[in-house]
Amino acid sequence: MTDEEKLAPRAPSQRGIYDVAVIGGGLVGSAIAYGLLRELERVAVLDEGDVAYRASRGNFGLVWVQSKGMGLPRYGVWTMASARAWPQLAAELLERTGVDVHLEQRGGLHVLLSEEEREARVKFMTGLLAQPGMSRYEWKLLDRAELASLVPGIGPDVVGATWTPVDGIANPLKLLRALHMTFAQTGVDYLPRRPAQTIRRRDGVFEIGTGQGAVRAHKVVLASGLGNKALGEQVGLAVPVRPQRGQIVVLERTRRLLETPMSTLRQTDEGTWLIGDSQEEAGYADNQVGLPILGALADRAVCTLPALREVRVVRSWAALRVMSQDGFPVYEQSEACPGAFVATCHSGVTLAAAHAHHLAPMIAAGRLADDMAPFSTRRFHVQEA
Fold first, then answer.
1. Of the four listed, 17, 133, 321, 345, which is most buried by Cβ atoms within 10 Å?
2. How far apart are CA 326 and CA 321, in angstroms?
3. Which band of pLDDT confidence, cut at 50, 70 and 90, is reported for residue 8?
4. Range of the domain at 126
5. Phi and psi at residue 89, in whole multiples of 5°?
6. Which residues of 289-318 are buried (b: 16+ CB within 10 A; e: fewer)?
7. Are 227 and 332 part of one and the same domain?
């Protein structure tokens, strides 16, 4: 069977009602669907297809732990659990599909370009890891000489970096492809060009209206990114998501020079350089690039590694992150419509392993674990009160 045949759209199941229908075929929905097939027999993935504003295709590709969890230690624990589960996920996908997602977990760097940045970073990391219930991991403040031993050629403005051994990278496009390839192998019904329009619950069964007919399932998972806000309202869930634009500059391929990725600069397994980390509040269709932001990203990259000045820009893009009101993930089951779950986050690559190996079994069992309570939307109600 060719790759095209493996990825060809499947007709809706003739076996009746699905055990669960996942709405959204990006990294979040695909990882959850992959995990659900380990627990259930009949799973469908409803997807807009290539017309979707898919954050998965604009992802920077970090598997990142440092910086995660300030103000919500449970997020730090969840992120660490995913980082630890990632090697198993990568190995499974390679065995099943032959696709190497190029997971590398050799540590990660957050570069500092001034004394003010260094002081602020030390204060942040110290406070982050001092929170009760926070995952503990090693981190170091590297001075300029220590950083230069890891990354030769750093610029004169670089004063140091923070480093952890738990960070890494993966290829998001290959990850998405590998997950989709498993659908045909495992029996997931992948239904592209079927965006969910309506959701109704009758006699314990969800009926999801699409432009090509209804899909029925005992459970439904909302994993449609920014679309979760409107869909959530139909099942009694208030999902406060908003679009946040991120822009990325792509430089031509060179020989592999950067073995330890940085939070704003990395080199892919193929040698391409990626520069990113902008954060702009945007509209729902506002995924256009802007020269001022791209210029600021490029300036910081050149300050970090001056040799990049001689490497040509080949393209740039912008994509919309899925941000909640406080920036943390939302995982919740509807009280009004039991069996309807929402999964929303902006870290589809980092959390892919947690979604597949930890969250999916909870959804299959029909109940989120007690320690997932900090991710419910109830936290927003407390803030409003």
1. 345
2. 13
3. very low
4. 108-165
5. -60, -45
6. eeeebbeebbebbbbbbeebeeeeeeebeb
7. yes
